[in-house]
Amino acid sequence: MVQSSGRRSLILALLLALLVAGTALLVSAQGEGTEHTGESEKLAQDPGDWPRVSAPGAPVRRLGLQQPDALASPAAAGGSSGDSVPTPVRRLPPTPTPAPLPTPDGTPRREVIPILMYHHVGVPGPGADAIRRDLSVSPEDFEAQLRYLIEHGYEPITLNSLIMHLQLGRALPAKPVVLTFDDGFKDQYSNAYPLLKKYGFVGTFFIITLFADEERPEYMSWSEIEFLHSNGMEIGSHSYTHPSMSGKSYEYIVWQVLGSREAIEARIGEPVRFFSYPSGQYDELTMDVLRSAGYWGAVTVEAGSLQTAEAPFELRRIRVRGRYDVREFDHWFNYWLAHP
Which residues contact 284 (CB under 8 A, 6 or more apart)? Predict the structure, then answer.
């Protein structure tokens, strides 16, 4: 009897111990559940503090568009970053900030302002034909002509400044002169530009954009064109393929003048406002399309120096021929000033 009562007491003690242990486990589990619930609420309320988890040793990749460095010189275009996995640079055409069109103030201005026309600035090679020789001014003669202009008090301006004067009356130097360069030949970059910078001149360079696209060796590359612009030169369009613009359809003219303009703007990030008619050939439809495409003016090959507010798309120029030494340059320069 005593033995049976002892066994019952032992069993009851074991059951009580098990009950106490179970209760402790239940309380512990409830506490842990509350802890995780609080952390979840914190993460939901403060996503900025969420922990970032990455695989051990995995490189961190930052997604986004890599911006190219500013072009310091034509030679600076290119090279390698040295990274084991190079990130390609994607160059998107910038959206140019629209410049307001110069609304004429109503004053019919007529000014004698010389616009010089150059093509090659270099010595033609042996066997060059008469046309190439006529289009080629040697670097020595070109430098002498710049010195002549300085000695006679002329100050260089851009076509932008000229149009702003003709349409709005913006002030110009007492003796302004514009220097233009057709076709975008490589020697304009290698020979003309250093001399322009040396003597403090600005020039307007008219580009045939297909030739830059194709990287033709005799013509400037896009990096060279960008370099000229970044160093203060004015860039204009000379069409896409250099065709005659006279007698062409509306669609064809749009393709030539708007396509080339957009190609240049995509590189320089600035509106292109001036056009040079290829071989000087154009008609009324060509001028209408240029106006509607946002151009402000165009230069011709018509000899003279009289520029008018009524005809900004028929600006006259003085051709500088390859045979001109300083004496002949002086003669013809002053001839066209006297017979504008």
Answer: none
